[in-house]
Amino acid sequence: MPGRDPSADIAAARRGVATFDAGDEPGVGDAVRGFTRRYGWRAYALPILVIITIVALMTVKDPSAGERGTSAAPTTAQPSSTGASNPPAASDTTVHSESASPNSVPLNALSLPPGAPYTKSGEGTYSIVKGTTKPFGHSSTGKIWTYDIEVEKGVTGIDVAQFAALVDQTLADPRSWSGHGVELQRVDSGTPDFRVSMTSAFTVRKYCGYTIKIETSCYAAAGSVSGLAVNRVVFDDARWVRGAPSYIADLTAYRTYMINHEDGHALGHMHAHECLADGLAPAMMQQTIGLKTPSGKLCEANPWPYPQGAKDAPGAEAVDTRQNNEYYLQGGE
Known about the structure:
By secondary structure, this protein is of the alpha/beta class. The protein has 9 helices and 7 strands, in the order H-H-H-H-E-E-E-H-E-E-H-E-E-H-H-H. It has helices at residues 6-19, 28-39, 42-59, 65-69, 160-172, 201-208, 237-242, 251-266, 326-329; strands spanning 126-128, 136-137, 144-152, 183-186, 194-199, 218-220, 232-236. Strands 1, 2, 3, 4, 5, 6 and 7 form a 7-stranded mixed sheet that branches.
């Protein structure tokens, strides 16, 4: 209480200690002994329970940001599989990096983000999407790379026209391979140099394998799989619908990356493992899995082989090893 002399409380406490269990009159000691005789072991258990309860209440606290980051999902709503618009050919696609997401919690880099349903199992055969283009880009060798676009029978939930249009538009963009010494043309008959195929998740494993147990797209060269006579770019419909954590729900940008990366393999490119000089990830980095380099640096997600202003694009490419593979750098086993 205000104005109270604390020395009086101290003196009273000392007097209590000095007279505890002294004299003939019943004192505190007698009361304690009577209490214990009456209630037995419960007399000791009660104060212990009180102490444990107080300690527990004192130690309860709000989880740290790091703990929340391993369990909470992003607050950003996921786009639908057919609702994303195609990026304009002459404009930049806005991309958010794994390390710069102030309004959402990054997902585990190896997980498939939540979102719309996708086809897990198709029929294993493909239908060609009708449509052609004139040759685009400029070849430094005189070769025109031809491709067709296919969708596995039984795959649903994909806007096929949008899929085909985004493939054509991406490959024709000057930031893609056609802007730097490559000429391409879409065909819908004959035997192309490679096929661009939308494929169900389980059929993907026929072409890409499943040693690394995550959903991912790939490039399968002719002869690498029994019965595969033509080179095939295999797009996992699960990734087309859901995207990847590196792109923080920017589904259109991620699809653009899928096209440039896997078609890059069809054009002869290997994986890249280091950030570009400006910090962007090379298009040939395995951005579906993560953005970390062997030195531990975190690149910024980037869907284009030749992003504007990047003088060292498309980046150094190298054979994959356990030491530079994104899967192992992200903690995969």
